Amino acid sequence: xxxGEEDPQALSIQEGENATMNCSYKTSINNLQWxxxxxxxxxxxxILIRSNEREKHSGRxxxxxxxxxxxxxxxxxxxxxxxxxxxxxxxSGTYKYIFGTGTRLKVLA
Amino acid sequence: NAGVTQTPKFQVLKTGQSMTLxxxxxxxxxxxxxxxxxxxxxxxxxxxSVGAGxxxxxxxPNGYNVSRSTTEDFPLRLLSAAPSQTxxxxxxxxxxxxxxxTFGSGTRLTVV
Lengths: 109, 112
Description:
The complex is a heterodimer of chains A (109) and B (112).
Chain A (H helix, E strand, L loop, with lengths): L4 E3 L2 E5 L4 E6 L6 E7 L5 E8 L4 E4 L2 E6 L4 E6 L8 E8 L4 E3 L3 E6 L1
Parallel strand pairs in A: 2-11
Antiparallel strand pairs in A: 1-3, 3-8, 4-5, 4-9, 6-7, 7-8, 9-10, 9-11
Chain B lengths: L3 E4 L2 E4 L5 E7 L5 E8 L3 E10 L2 E4 L6 E3 L9 E3 L8 E8 L7 E2 L3 E5 L1
Parallel strand pairs in B: 2-11
Antiparallel strand pairs in B: 1-3, 3-8, 4-5, 4-9, 5-6, 7-8, 9-10, 9-11
């Protein structure tokens, strides 16, 4: 079964708004990563947060991790039409990464 | 620097046929994985490798074989194709388990 489950499954917002998506997982992890997938393309790595970190920033991205709740959130600030994509979290315990089912984000111009 | 290269990009197979999906990376990455992506299912791990000569099973290994004779190549073999194996297959590589994966562009496989 999937390790990570993203919520919501789909999200539609206006350009300029912030988008927040969440990931819950089941077992202890070493790190958690977020990826973006544009339609019909491979996944692109966005950001990694280690289990001993609580928050991380990269440009317009902000990721939080709460290991006590086994959850993470990805915030995209000031969204753009180009942010329209599916977003996946991936968790790693040892060597293998298990992906969630993804959040489909649509940013309306 | 090509990154992760997957071939072919598209393939149609008949039930029972076998084939090999190719994956090659030129970044000297030790860690490589194969995933399949189905609508509404996200990505599911088929097999992974932590270095040449070392492979292990993922979440959905049945019907697939892998080997890793070199650092660069990690082919995925479908032994006897079934319609349930219709999917998009992604290969990914990473230098270390705590680094992000670099993904290939995928192989879209249809089994009829």
